[in-house]
Amino acid sequence: MQQTVSAAIRAAMLECDPQAKVMAARKVARDWRLGRLDFAFDVMMPEQPGRPEAPELLPPGRMPRRRKAGSERGRIALWHALAHIEFVAIDLALDMAGRFGAEMGERFVGDFLSVAADEAMHFALIDRHLKTLGSHYGALPAHAGLWSAAHDTRHDVAARLAVVPMVLEARALDVTPSTLERVLAAGDERGARILERILDDEIRHVRFGANHFVALAKQSGAAVDELWKSLVSRHFRGTVKPPFNDSARLAAGLSRDLYAGVA
Ligand SMILES: [Fe+2]
Ligand SMILES: [Fe+2]
Fold first, then answer.
1. pTM of the model
2. Could you tell me the residue ranges of all domains in the chain?
3. Residues with Cβ within 5 Å of ion ligand 1?
């Protein structure tokens, strides 16, 4: 008998070592694509994914101030923060597929496992870049808040889609152009290429989220923008605010009418 997709996803989520999680996430996505996993959900997703002992996770208010952007330490702090976001994003995508796959179907599982594989690649690229700067993932403290958005929406796939791809990942589309400028201003061509590649992938991730959200809203007879706004106001503690990267958002299937009303 083949392994079930949920068992493979759970095992990848429980990996603590970053390298092992990267390999496991990419393997689940590949095995699913090749038909080596059964579409069956016989195990639960973990409440907390496995993570390494370092970085130390700090509440947002206790994170050290960002250093000056141009300095060596500032550059390392930036790439370390990005590495952490991608590391958590691996588990966010795995959890999406493993937790909601049974009700959402095979296409949904395939979409979010491909996202998990992308996030694993993003993490690996950034971690390698950090090493060329003489650092590595785990060398600095990191933000503890990222997983909580997922945890808070663990009972409702519409809320999860509304908050994770359509708010948090869409936010990454907004901030990447200015990060890219800073990185280029520091003469970091290789870093700029990594960010450009990530931006392309993140547009696709937001689009997957938006497409599945729209399908869910239509099924339930709800208006897409009303449902999204009510879920965001109930489940997202931050604010959706400009500047927006309108062209990237549009490419991802988010119209200005949708998010401008919330801002
Ligand atoms: Fe990513
Ligand atoms: Fe992503």
1. 0.96
2. 1-39+66-143, 145-263
3. 86, 89, 119, 122
